[in-house]
Amino acid sequence: MIAKLWMNSVLVRRLMGVLLMGALLIGGAVAMAPATALAGSCPAGKQGVDVRKPDTTPARDVTDTVISSIDVAKEPADIEGRQFRMRRLEVKPGGVVPWHSHDDRPAIIYIVKGEITEYASTCSVPIVHKAGDSTAERHGVAHWWKNTGKTTAVLISADLLHVNDADPHMM
């Protein structure tokens, strides 16, 4: 009886191992498969350098709250003159995050709620971001955002801001 239970447990473990390996292989194949466009990204063939000119629309109906920040010069990373910060932005319908550059300030944005449209210097068409999307903002990107939806959009932004920048709410 004990031998039978032991054999069954060995078989169950082997079966679980095979199933796990299969899931990993399938997941890896899906992750490596080419995609025509990811949600919230510039479509293929629409990318370029400075394909969209700066926009002068001022900030409107956007609330920018610094949630937390770290002086990274005091951390093991020792990045002098930088602050790693996290912000919550709420953009009301029709609200605008004005044109700004990420040439010297990388950021990652996560859309928590709603929908917001990005007008990037690197994409000739507007990019719609929906709840659950994230986007990396890197060197060479300047852009502005507008909430063209009917509900308030909520975004979480994490970036490396220069400590000497005068405005901690710089977009």
TrEMBL record:
Protein name: Cupin
Boundaries of every Cupin type-2 domain copy: 89-157
Pfam families, A to Z: Cupin_2
Highest taxon of source: Bacteria
Record InterPro entries: Cupin_2, RmlC-like_jellyroll, RmlC_Cupin_sf
